[in-house]
Specification:
The chain is of the alpha/beta class. It is 24% helix and 23% strand. The chain is built from eight helices and 18 strands. The protein has helices at 31-37, 66-79, 95-105, 129-140, 255-266, 290-294, 305-316, 322-329; strands at residues 6-13, 18-21, 24-27, 49-59, 85-89, 106-107, 113-116, 150-154, 157-160, 165-166, 175-176, 184-185, 191-192, 205-206, 213-218, 236-243, 269-274, 298-299. Strands 4-1-5-7-8-9-12-13 form an eight-stranded mixed sheet, with helices on both faces. Strands 15-16-17-18 form a four-stranded parallel sheet, with helices on both faces. It has a two-stranded antiparallel sheet with strand order 2-3. The radius of gyration is 21 Å and the shape is elongated. The N and C termini lie far apart (49 Å). Bound molecules: aspartic acid (ASP). The site of aspartic acid has 10 residues, from loops.
Length: 340
């Protein structure tokens, strides 16, 4: 008999393992091990063996940031040879950011890293945790076939991690990847869309994130850019601008020009993404994006804001010349963008 597949479950926190408290749901240390031990499905011969690594402290995913991403990535790297794949249990609120970050940090990945969680805690009768967890574990074990990517499994869909975005605060199908076909879906059996998968990497290389100063600015009708001039310091290394439609932005009486001048003087990299859920920014398509083009802003194409943030962290954490960071921002590194 073939040896059982081995999966490492990394429990970082999130609703999946929370319990009710007088102040609302909160992480419950030790509870996940108990919940898993009480799940008879996990002893089914079809299921992989697993080890649980529980973080201390367990976090609501609002607290996730570069230090936590580094820890998850290091834990995967350190255990990489011991397991067939990894499941990261995570809060849904920032799961798409963490999935994006891990996809950049884990260069050369050849094993599945599947993020999942739930909208209803495990301890509740109607919880979606059980299904999400079981399918994520099977996928991490390479069933029905290996998916050598950082992915997000939720509500019966497997999404490329750096294309995913949370689309519902309360629906059990909470995520989608509007600009990228799903990688697999649930049904009578799990169907993998093999043609959508990226090829496995050759050797895992970890790039940890530092803490470069970056920001996100969502443009809205009537935006007074002068309000944001104070953040345009030489410290600010990158700014994701969530622009209208194809990358359009109102000039608003010179306010935009001053902001762009500051960015240019300070060497701040501007990345223009679209606010639309689907489709792509395309700087230069409309006259309203001309100032961005003239100041040398980078086009984020169809990247999610989550992926753009993670990619800025990734590139700015390396000692790369600005021109190279700008050029790499527009290139497809991990399947995060479709390009022009
Ligand atoms: N606030 C929770 C978190 O992101 C929400 C969830 O897990 O669904 O940690």
């Amino acid at each position: 008999m073939a040896p059982k597949k081995r999966v490492c479950l990394i429990h970082t926190g999130g609703t999946i393992g929370m319990k009710p408290t007088p102040y609302g749901y909160a992480p419950a240390p030790g509870y996940m091990a108990e919940a898993l031990a009480g799940l008879p499905e996990l002893s089914d011969p079809a299921m992989p063996q697993y080890d649980l690594v529980e973080y201390q402290p367990l976090l609501d995913s609002s607290y996730m940031a570069a230090p936590q991403w580094n820890r998850i990535a290091r834990d995967i790297r350190d255990r990489y040879q011991d397991y067939d794949g990894f499941v990261v249990l995570h809060g849904t609120d920032t799961m798409a950011y963490t999935a994006s970050a891990l996809s950049f940090m884990l260069e050369g990945l050849a094993k599945p890293v599947i993020l999942t969680g739930s909208q209803i805690p495990f301890c509740r009768i109607r919880s979606d945790a059980r299904d999400n967890l079981i399918c994520a574990m099977l996928l991490a074990a390479g069933e029905p076939e290996p998916v050598p990517e950082v992915c997000l499994w939720f509500g019966g869909k497997l999404l490329r991690g750096n294309r995913a975005t949370k689309v519902s605060a309360d629906h059990l199908i909470a995520f989608d990847s509007p600009n990228c076909p799903h990688l697999a879906r649930d049904g009578v059996r799990i169907t993998i869309y093999r043609e959508q998968l990226r090829p496995p990497g050759k050797a895992l290389k970890l790039q940890e994130f530092g803490s470069p100063r970056i920001a996100v600015l969502k443009v809205f009708p009537g935006i007074q850019f002068d309000l944001f001039e104070k953040i345009m310091t030489p410290d600010l290394r990158g700014l994701v601008l969530e622009a209208f439609g194809a990358g359009n932005i109102p000039a608003n009486e010179g306010g935009l020009a001053r902001l762009l001048d500051r960015a240019r003087e300070n060497g701040t990299i501007l990345v223009v993404c679209t606010q639309c859920l689907k489709g792509s920014a395309a700087i230069g398509q409309y006259e309203t994006s001309r100032p961005l083009r003239e100041m040398g802003a980078v086009c984020g194409w169809d990247m999610t804001a989550e992926a753009a943030v993670a990619k800025l962290y990734y590139l700015l954490s390396q000692d790369l010349p600005t021109a190279q960071v700008k050029s790499l921002m527009e290139q497809n590194l991990r399947g995060e963008l479709s390009g022009p």
